TrEMBL record:
Pfam families, A to Z: Radical_SAM
Cofactor names: [4Fe-4S] cluster
Species this chain originates from: Acanthoscelides obtectus (Bean weevil)
UniProt keyword list: 4Fe-4S, Iron, Iron-sulfur, Metal-binding, Molybdenum cofactor biosynthesis, S-adenosyl-L-methionine
Keyword Metal-binding: yes
Domain Radical SAM core: from-to ranges: 35-169
SUPFAM superfamilies, per database record: Radical SAM enzymes (SSF102114)
Pathway involvement of the protein, from the record: Cofactor biosynthesis; molybdopterin biosynthesis
Keyword Iron applies: yes
GO biological process: Mo-molybdopterin cofactor biosynthetic process
Classification via InterPro entries: Aldolase_TIM, MoaA_NifB_PqqE_Fe-S-bd_CS, MoCo_biosynth_MoaA/MoaC, rSAM, rSAM_sf
Descriptive protein name: Radical SAM core domain-containing protein
GO function terms (MF aspect): 4 iron, 4 sulfur cluster binding; cyclic pyranopterin monophosphate synthase activity; GTP 3',8'-cyclase activity; metal ion binding
Length: 169
């Protein structure tokens, strides 16, 4: 696990994290170099805590306390923060959640991120539930990489297997 860059966390602890370049690169950008000399070029932005699935370990049946809307990043704030980080050397941003596809402004966010000079890659991690409906629009907006997380399917399969073994499936 990498240590988060102090300056980055100051922006919004709940919604931002930074990734480390595997090999340290020579750079004059000192802001995103941590105390171990690792240069961070990769930023993850969580667009929402909400999700259209209910994986037990993440969204228990009794629910979780969600952040009120006024405290969530708006489209403009996401872009503004992204610009600041790109200025400091970030060249890859990954959009995550919760589930990022439930944000109606997702294509706008991606499009505006792609306009930022110096940002090479905009990626997204999704549970894939509505991907077939949204993929074309997201691609048109400029999305470079999609990672589909299968954790929820894996958990369901394991639960089914356990139920079958116990004779309750
Ligand atoms: S798909 Fe991901 S974000 Fe959604 S409930 Fe499952 S683990 Fe949580």
């Amino acid at each position: 696990m990498h240590k988060p860059v102090r300056n980055a966390w100051k922006f919004c602890r709940r919604h931002l994290s930074v990734g480390t370049q595997p090999k340290p690169v020579l750079s004059t950008k000192e802001t995103l170099t941590d105390l171990f000399g690792r240069y961070h070029n990769y930023l993850r932005i969580s667009l929402t805590e909400r999700c259209n699935l209910r994986c037990q370990y993440c969204m228990p049946e009794e629910g979780v306390k969600l952040t009120e809307k006024p405290h969530l990043l708006t489209t403009d704030e996401v872009i503004k923060i992204a610009r600041l980080f790109v200025k400091e050397g970030v060249d890859k941003i990954r959009l995550t959640g919760g589930e990022p596809t439930i944000r109606k402004d997702l294509p706008d966010i991606i499009y505006n991120l792609k306009q930022i000079e110096g940002l090479k890659t905009v990626a997204m991690t999704t549970n894939g539930l509505v991907l077939t409906k949204q993929l074309v629009a997201l691609q048109k907006a400029g999305l470079d990489i999609v990672n589909v997380s299968w954790t929820h399917l894996l958990l369901r399969s394991m639960k089914k297997l356990q139920e079958e073994k116990a004779g309750i499936g």
